[in-house]
Amino acid sequence: MSDPHSSALAESLAARFGETLTLSTVRNETTAELAAADLIAVATALRDEPEFRFSELVDLCGIDYLGHCQTEWDTESISSTGFSRGVEGQAMGRFNWAERPRGNNEPRRFAAVIHLLSIAHNRRLRLRVFCDDDTLPVVPSLTLIWPGVNWFEREAFDLYGIIFDGHPDLRRILTDYGFVGHPFRKDFPLIGNVEVRYDPEQKRVIYEPVSIEPRILVPRTIRNDADLMQAEAEAADHWREN
């Protein structure tokens, strides 16, 4: 069943911003995709204009679409041997750059996703902004519009390597001072690049190349949970009604 509030929000956004936003509403959740160059102007309007009043930025996160919609697990057949039984591909953390997945559904690799809340109108909105350059992903910082986003942007920078242009103090927030790489990128090895140990002879902590051999120990489990079945049924009803 469609939510009239979601439809009204999508209509208001389309009327106000036109082709600047690409809108979609799925399961009564509205997502607006826009270019990085338009983010500051659109975000300011969403915060200040009475029709929207998105005063709260609830969350910001990064996404790496490398290998999007590709799976490494065979869920139709089984094998009787080995830790890696059922593996038929090279998913996140288990391929080198030259052998990275190809043919993604998304034309660009990195995106920032922003979740907004309007307390005045009791509405939520998701913004998705793709980075134009996969080699150096950059989007504008929103710290001057919603100051609370400061640490969210630092987290996305630390884990995905997304640069937030205009951030007042863009530095790592979760990993170690000398950490190399960005651990949530799909091509970052699951075993890491280095390992740390204390050397009693040198009397200090030293970094060495990782010595663990990569292997797959935890298979993905496919379950027919009741909530998933309910979600599929609701989605089917939605498509029939529309």
How does this structure look, described?
There is one protein chain. The chain is an alpha/beta fold. It has one domain (4-241): Beta Polymerase, domain 2, CATH 3.30.460.80. Helices cover 21% and strands 23% of the residues. It contains 4 helices and 9 strands, in the order αββαββββαβββα. The chain has helices spanning 4-17, 39-48, 150-160, 226-241, and strands at 22-26, 29-34, 56-64, 110-118, 123-130, 138-140, 163-165, 194-199, 204-209. Strands 1-2-5-4-3 form a 5-stranded mixed sheet. A hairpin with a 4-residue loop joins β8 and β9. The chain starts with a helix and ends with a helix.
What's the CATH topology name? Beta Polymerase, domain 2
Spatial order of strands in the largest sheet: 1-2-5-4-3
What's the SSE pattern? HEEHEEEEHEEEH
Radius of gyration: 22 Å
